[in-house]
Amino acid sequence: MKKILIIGVGSIGKRYLQILTKKKIFVGIYDKKKTNLAVNNFLIFKNFKEIKRWCPDAVIISTTANSHSAILKKFKKINTKLFLIEKPLTLGKKDAELVKIFSKKYKKKIYMVSNLRFLYPIKKIKKIIKSLGRPLYSHIYYNHNFINSKSKF
Fold first, then answer.
1. I need a labelling partner for 127 at 20 to 30 A (CA). Which of 35, 51, 72, 86 fits?
2. Strand order from edge to edge, sheet including 109-112
3. From CA 100, how far away is CA 88, in angstroms rounded?
4. Which ranges of the chain does DSSP label H, i.e. alpha helix?
5. What is the pTM of this model?
């Protein structure tokens, strides 16, 4: 069974936790703050020594952006190869370059969650809706698979 570690269990981390604990996956969490969580079928790690022994297959980093590169560095000697990081990846170009070097040097795959509200088409739709006045009703459909999406903006 796959093992996934969630680092940072704020509002976004809790969403990942609720989703993953429903799957056939071992889930672990690491958060410096003590959190009260409704679900309880996961492991809680107190330090990176425990995490290293557990050796997760993947890590979700949902902490503040200023900590992302420092957290990644802790996985230099841990065999974890897959990382999902909440946006923004880093706060500056220097840290972003370090993440890129880390990924290549240690053969780690790093993915970043993106927020679509800044895409031009979404901003354009929002502008059009605002020009019409206050909406009384809205139904929105979003397709995650852009490759198979027929729509063009």
1. 86
2. 43-44, 26-30, 3-7, 58-61, 82-85, 109-112
3. 14
4. 11-20, 48-54, 68-73, 93-105, 120-132
5. 0.74
